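User: We ran a pulldown and think these components assemble together. Before we commit to crystallization trials, I'd like a predicted model of the whole complex to look at. Sequences follow.
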Amino acid sequence: MASIKLAGENAIIIYFGCHATSELAGEIAFYTQQLLGSLGDLIIDVVPSYTSLMISYRLNLIQYHDFCRHVEQVLSSSTFAPSDLKSTLIEIPVYYGLDTGLDLSELLDDKGLSLEDFITIHSAKTYLVYAIGFSPAFAFLGKVDDRINSTRLARPRIKIPAGSIGIADDQTAVYPIASSGGWNIVGRTPIDLSLNNPENIKRFSVGDNVKFVPISQQEYVSLGGGL
Amino acid sequence: MSFEVIKAGFYSLIQDYGRFGFAQYGLSQSGVADEHAYCWANHLLDNDFNDAVLEITFGSCELNALDNMCIAVTGADLDFKINGVPQPLWHVINVQPNDTLTWSTAKSGIRSYLAVKGGFQTKPLFNSKSVNVRENIGTQLLNGDMLSCQSADKSMDHRMMPSEFIPDYDRNITLRVLPSYQFDLFDEQQKQHFFNQRYTVTSASDRTGCRLDGHVMTNVQARMVSEGICYGSVEITTQGLPIILLKDSPTMGGYPKIATVFSLDLAKLAQRQAGCGVTFELIDIETAQQKRREFNAFFAINIR
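Assistant: Here's a predicted model for the assembly, 531 residues in total across the polymer chains.
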């Protein structure tokens, strides 16, 4: 059962569970949609995450206890079934090469996998967006196959190129812009996910599905990818 | 109507009330650091509460007025002058073509707000003109820039804020906090530790977070599952010291949070220089909301 806690003078946080599972992520995405649908006029912002949902609301319009009561009503009036979740499938082309996958050769050695094996394993799964944070349009995707689960780098990189695909523990993600970070870089997408195109802000939503589509170096370059 | 930027200064940013509705996509709230000084500047000019202003941090900024404009400068005392003559803060001032406006050094406080009648007319992105430096959104001043604003067809009456409301930014402050997030996970001894000492503001503070120094808290819970962060959340890091998360903070974080600072006290904190003393005390949610509602009503703040 969800528990509601105070987050700030105009914000609450709802805890749906303790452990990040795909079922819980789906449930949180579903209730985020329900709450926005029912209480959208009162809500300023929502931040769904692995086990929780933070909501800020217009305190000019409603008091804390009344808002909590409204939220409880919405939560108890609808039961989550995975089929209820509206989610989009997003395909991201990826060139998995030793030139773009900066940590790929080390990772393959470490895991005893061939490049083909790795590509098959990473691209076979449909990943769920568990959370969006770190920076805009940075979607935390899970969960990767145990065979390619890799701990973060001991020394984070100062600069990871935009579009890089990373793995950290059981999560994978695309870096929308060049940034520092400790994820194992295994490939790169030629697609621009940065806010240079403002539409990209809404490219991922929590609860969406993401699939990586392997492409060749030639296709990567022809789609505008840099090496 | 515009200003020409002669010297951009250390850190001069266009800011409005903030960017809302995009936190679920990972975009920070942004917006002015000191809502009190900002709201007064717009209020004196009969502006909308959300009109964009220039937030000048520490000074070293010089603007040249190209037209007749009505302005108000509020917040920190950064030795604001026009044509070399010291000017009053918290007043409406009518400027003329070729007037040179300067902010040199921080005498008291950190951030000065320049509001102009009608607000600065920079390009909004994601429903706000606020600068988000990390994402390279909005207008951060550069030398030679033109800052356009609406024309003032007539000069305004010389209005001013009642002097008894002028804050003293040099005093130590007590921040009122709500018991939020993981408050109950901190034990009695840790809470005593938090509420019974005077921390100091460190120089490693910015618009993202205010880092405090003091006696470290022991046995702090390790990082947890990341969750949504709210403006003013007080994280206790693994080292046992607080970071107060501010307008440019990321939307998610994984350190345990002991409390959330009341927003009107965050406005005061935004003007505290490194070394200032900070203590915490509890406030209840009803009181905090009531005080915030009064503030919102006075300045006609109504987030759309």
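Chain A touches chain B at residues 5-11, 13, 18, 20, 32, 44-54, 56, 58-60, 63-64, 131-138, 177, 195, 198, 201-202, 204-206 (CB under 8 Å). That may be worth checking against your pulldown data before setting up trials.

User: Thanks, that helps.
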